[in-house]
Amino acid sequence: MNRHTLDARRLLCPMPVIRAQARVAQLQAGDILDVVCTDPGAKNDIPAWCRMHGHRVLAIDEHNREITISLEVGSGE
Fold first, then answer.
1. Residues forming beta bridges with residue 35, ordered by sequence position
2. What sign results for the dihedral spanned by CA atoms 17, 18, 21, 27?
3. Annotated catalytic residue 13
4. CB 64 within 8 A of CB 38
5. Helix extents (H) in the chain
6. How far is Cα 10 from Cα 49, in angstroms, rounded to an integer?
7. Full-model pTM
8. Which position among 4, 11, 13, 38 bears the catalytic label?
9. Phi, psi (rounded to 5 degrees) for 34
10. Which positions of the chain have pLDDT values less than 70?
11. For residue range 20-37, what is the model confidence (pLDDT) as tens digits?
């Protein structure tokens, strides 16, 4: 398991999800991706995308208008 960070700050919907999808495609099952974003819609969009594609949201943290969504990459099966 490796941990990675994706900077999606200042991107508006649907770009945080699109960037997360592209980054997850480069990772292995079990890897952790921390998506840092400023679009409040990402708090709903990224978890919904994770449910549809077999990834698991580990945490959603907010601090100073930045949202960090930590997800575990699924196996894609």
1. 6, 69
2. negative
3. yes
4. no
5. 15-24, 42-53
6. 20
7. 0.94
8. 13
9. -100, 115
10. 76-77
11. 999 999 999 999 999 999
